[in-house]
Design brief:
Helix content is 62%, strand content 0%. It has 130 residues and is an all-alpha fold. It is rod-shaped, with a radius of gyration of 44 Å.
Amino acid sequence: MAKKKKTVKEKESYFIGIDNPVELRRHILEPTREVIQFLQSYEQFKRTKEEKTHAILQLKTDLKAIKTEVNKLKRFLPKNKLKVERVAKKTSEPAVIESQPKKTKRIPPELASLERELGAIEKKLGTLVE
């Protein structure tokens, strides 16, 4: 029978002595701890990003709701735009307000009383500003 030759790789094993195994473990575990801390901070970042996108989407839906409510409100408000006369800042000369010539159309009595009240309020505002 033929004898099998022993290969060097099969039977021999090498052991290397480590001078300070505790220090070596510490050097291996510290970067691992830093990686885990980084992963935790990344997960926190992802959560914050998701909350931000959720808040932005909620804001968009709220803005749409506000726009629709404003449009509904505009439908109920009168169509005419009121022009408010601004009183100039105090000057040495009193401001003269020129009145427009009255139109010859007949004004309903309710509208005339409203105009008188409006004139009185504008006079009071004019005295308050000065």
